[in-house]
Amino acid sequence: MPARIAKYPPISGVGNDFHSVMPPSAPPAPPNPAPIPSYAWLATASNPAPGFLITGKWSWHRVTTEGVGNTLAGHDWGFGQGHFPVPPLTTPSLALRILGSQVKYWLPSSPNTEPQDGSPPGIQGKGGPVAVSTPAFVTSTQDCQDISGWGFCAPTSFCFQQVSAREVGFTLGDLVAGLISMAADSAAALLSRAIGGPAGTSAEEVAKQLDDAIVGVVVGSVCTLMVALLPPESQGVMKVVLGTGAGIGTGGASGGATALGSGLIGAGGDWAGGAAQQAIDGKRSPDAGALDS
Q: Which domain holds residue 130?
């Protein structure tokens, strides 16, 4: 079926996800002495800076008549996106949700690959398939979730895109490849919880979680920027190496094991998704509709 390329930059996004709530909460909600295992949150994609500078995957325009960039599958708005519990309450989890937010494009058009011009801008990374949007210029995106601290991902948000006239093909194989990628992200999140163990609820333990989240954002951003300086063909291996080293340096053996396992799971998910897409669709060339219509 034909689909539109999700143009870059996106406009905004909104959705809902489910996360546990750490104590203590404050009015208007009653105090909770123990974590709330699952609570509804309104998630927004409204801060483009992290996705532009650090976590994003986008390509500057290759079709000059449109004059804007293309969003690549896997583009992530990154940390710093607003999360609001519904009904409202005040909890330390508010800061954790903003530091750990994810709004990620998971629907690819596999044969239509483009070079990655960001992030960071101006440094070429490993290219990949473009992300697709519906003809209504809105697309499904995946959000991070958790139940009692066990993380996973689900397509519970939508992002609004710029108008595009460029059509590409989107197949069952593309859908399966995207689902496998999302499953790999979920497996990486579950591994992190399994290695790190359950979160404590005392004031000291909650403060440590906030400290760890801040360190994670800083270290992850630095590693991403360092990897971006390397040739595209070596970035995947070095991302695992640097991430593992940083995890050991900041979180001990468990941090290193988490980074190594997550990197391997991500690489395996990419391979499995590509293999599944080819097995379902057979050999595909870039779609004839890849030019402006």
A: 2-290
